[in-house]
Amino acid sequence: MLNSSTEAAGPPPSDGGGTPLKRAIGPKLLLLFVVGDILGTGIYANTGAVAGRIGGALWVPFVIGFVVAMLTAASYVELVGKYPRAAGAALYTQKAFRVPFLTFIVAFMVMCSGLSSASAAARAFSGDYLQEFVDISPTLIAILFVVVLASLNLRGVSESVKTNVVLTVVEVTGLLVILGIGVAAVLTGEGEPSRLTEFDTGGTGYAVLTGVLGATALGFFAFVGFEDSVNMAEETKDPVRNFPRAIFLGVAITGTIYVLVALVSSLMVDHERLAGSSGPLLLVVDESGVDFPAKLFALIALFAVSNSALINIMMASRLCYGLANERVLPRGMGRVLPGRRTPVVGIVFVTALAIGLVSTGEIEGLGDTTSFLLLCVFAVVNVAVLVLRRDPVDHKHFRAPTWIPVLGAVTAGILASPLSDRPADVYIRAGVLLAIGIGLWIVNQVALRAAGQTGQTGEK
Fold first, then answer.
1. pTM of the prediction?
2. What are phi and psi of 155, to 5 degrees?
3. Contacts of 249 (CB under 8 A, 6+ apart)
4. What is the pLDDT of residues 141-174, one digit of tens each?
5. Residue 5: CB partners within 8 Å, gap ≥ 6?
6. d(CA 449, CA 427)
């Protein structure tokens, strides 16, 4: 159960210039932030790709993904309650294992997952949904899209989160339209219910197992986002009290919506046609026979994927800020813009990386890369929860039953493993990113040693 802290968390650490982040996020904004971060690209653009891997039983991967997400969410809730600071998984890894290299790799994987997710959203924005209105180079649109969202992020967390509220309401409206279509289909006898139990995984037995795991691993991309919110801990009012409610309720709301949307999508459209579209929910609207303007739904979808990209860029920039304060990245990465009190260097850095990703990747590959990187991180975080039980803190906080992080680590590890039948290009992309990370680690260590520091432990 949740135990409230007797007092709010202490003052956040400041950046190198002594300027703390502004606590501007209350419980309602935090819940909308979590829901808005989870909803978006994964369901609006990746539903078709998941259908292509499993067939008409499209809802199954989302049910499994919901369970895995809830297990790991409980671990994050316990840790953010103990350590309400920016840096998230990297902070927990360092406290649990005290291995600087592992901490850096986890941090780099989290950052890259956020950027690949934002890049997938940018690609989704410039795909089939936008083609309802204009015919412009998708890559150019995706790059401009990232730059505009970075500018909004630079203005301030309050402006960014309030924009998130508006976009979250819009994207939820779009999904409610899909659910309304499903209700109408059931009442009028439209659709094909037999598709809901069809598995098209290319065989039986082991092939079905790997097919379901592969579809779940890809579909898990739709659930990522709750872990981003912990990087906003230093900008949240009373994080020890507010995070458990926001994360658990946010995952439950989005999980329920996802399963229902998956059921409706399979009911209305054959999985092979869904698999061929980068705007699968627009296809559902077109095929439903319901008199709902296709362009209006496309506009809603554009807002939805915009929200995903905005929040992921916010997360990555705050992660840079937190890591700089933990001496994982150079202190300069934590520099805050005095007037706006936003992590200016972090925003510029992650925007440049996102532009590189949108220029070289497509939606499905970037989404699968996001899932793989985060599943690896989730396995580590679940183990860290158990290790850090030996490190009590002086305030009360949520504590998950021991079986939850154990099962969370096992399920995340399975979905990240080759059992999920993940395409080779995902491992290649992740390997290249890790190679870049190792190179940055070496450069950072040389700089720290030159300055007479060891980094991450505070020792000189």
1. 0.84
2. -65, -35
3. 31, 34
4. 999 999 988 888 777 666 656 676 787 788 889 9
5. 81, 238, 240, 241, 395, 396, 397
6. 32
